[in-house]
Amino acid sequence: MVDLVIKNGLIVTMDKEHRIIANGSVGVEDGRIVSIGRRIKVEGKPEETIDAKGKIVMPGLICSHTHLYRGFLRGAPLKIEPPTDFSQILQRTWWPMDEAMTREDAYASALISCLGFVKTGTTLFADTFSGPNAITGVLDRIAAAVEQSGIRGIIAFEATERRTHAEGAKGTRENERYIRKIKKERTSRVRGMFGIHASFTVSEELLRYVRELASRYKVPITIHTSEGLVDLYHNYERFGRRTVERLCDAGLLGADVVLAHCVQVNDDELDIIKRTNTKVAHNPMSDMLNAVGIAPIAKMLSMGISVGLGNDGYIFDGFENIRAAFLLHKIALRDPRAISPMEALEMATIRGAELYGLENELGSLEAGKLADIIIIDPATAPTPIRPESVVGHLVNTITGNDVETVIVGGTAVMRERKLLTLDEQETVKVARKAAEKLWQKLGAIRR
């Protein structure tokens, strides 16, 4: 018997045909979509029916690259000399924060970030945590927060050797421990992967070791790649190669690898990414914030490289990130045709699923796929919402605040803007208390 029917909605499927179904219905049973269309057959009375008349029904958004803990530095009055480039941003801002983080900070920051994702329609994210003084067991604390929220996550510790080689090995062991644990449980909505900070903070040995482990456990790898010029210059000076060339020569690249950013890449590197079927997570708002440049996303898309959309821990409203990706490349290329509305929307849905090998499970509304669905109320839109206009509205008009209902695996985690899995006031209280202590450690505020 069907558990849930969503009826009368304007359904944006994001399937291969880009079908948009007016007055459509979706049937859900045991957490999966069993039928979708203008008219669906339902045996017996469904346990729940949602009337989506006048509303948009679409797959939950996918954030292909984030750092849940970085929300804790939002608005922090850091008493530092203003950084002049990306390298100084890392040294003066993020690395001191990383070293101050505890396991409970990781939990609290994951909880508040997941709340932000739920409220704005993201149902799956890929996260890496960096905290050299909170490694062992930290992924369990992050996973606990994600499980509480009711959404899905792919998580990793960001292995780095910027301080010691032993630290890089310890971070990798934490990933392996968590991956082994999850593979035994099999039922968790939180998966594991291997995370590497960036090629300029790790050795050849660590790159090869992580590649071996990822192949053994059949899980993804993610690594920041040519985000700033520091990465490119390091590889030129130490190895005589560009970043992607070095990663390829180390045997790291492949269909299970997600390169975050890829701003400072040239055509030869794009050819390598394409040839190895490696994926890219684009982070337009973070790249603008850090002034690192503009990734050649339009060229990647024209080459058939899979590109997903991430936030790098900056803005958690996926619709803001969609809009940024849609606009940024037009001004970069001085061409209003650079990224189409559908391409921008695909990066936040089906392409994001492709990055992590989940395109047969998530990213579009199709029979057989997991029922990760969001319902949007476009009541404030100034012009008609019709099948021929809905994609344009999703990219140009809709914000996360318009997301009304969020369903993950057939279970509602937010209904009519009411959170069902998290106590919003308590979550904010926990987050602010932890963030205040962190700000004190960083000397941003007095005790």
Keywords:
2 domains, nine-stranded mixed sheet, 22% strand, TIM Barrel, alpha/beta, single chain, 447 residues, Urease, subunit C, domain 1, 15 helices, 18 strands, nine-stranded parallel sheet
Rounded to an integer, what's the Rg over CA atoms? 21 Å
CATH topology of the largest domain: TIM Barrel
Class inferred from helices and paired strands: alpha/beta
Q: State the CATH architecture of the largest domain.
A: Alpha-Beta Barrel
Quantity of strands, as a count: 18
Low-confidence stretches: none
CATH superfamily of the largest domain: Metal-dependent hydrolases
Largest sheet: 9 strands, mixed
Mean pLDDT: 96
Residue share in helix = 25-40%
Q: Strand fraction band?
A: 15-25%
Number of domains: 2
Q: What's the CATH class label of the largest domain? A: Alpha Beta
Q: What's the number of helices?
A: 15
Taking the alpha carbons of the first and last residues, their distance comes to 58 Å
The coarse silhouette is globular
Tell me the layout of helices and strands.
Blueprint: E1 4-12, E2 20-29, E3 32-37, E4 48-51, E5 56-59, E6 61-66, H1 86-100, H2 103-120, E7 122-129, H3 138-149, E8 152-159, H4 165-185, E9 190-192, E10 194-198, H5 204-217, E11 221-225, H6 229-239, H7 243-249, E12 257-261, H8 267-275, E13 279-282, H9 284-289, H10 297-303, E14 307-309, H11 318-333, H12 341-347, H13 350-355, E15 373-376, H14 390-396, E16 403-408, E17 411-415, E18 418-419, H15 424-441
Parallel strand pairs: 1-4, 1-5, 6-7, 7-8, 8-9, 8-10, 10-11, 11-12, 12-13, 13-14
Antiparallel strand pairs: 1-2, 2-3, 5-15, 15-16, 16-17, 17-18
Helix pairs in contact: 2-3, 2-15, 4-5, 7-8, 11-12, 12-14
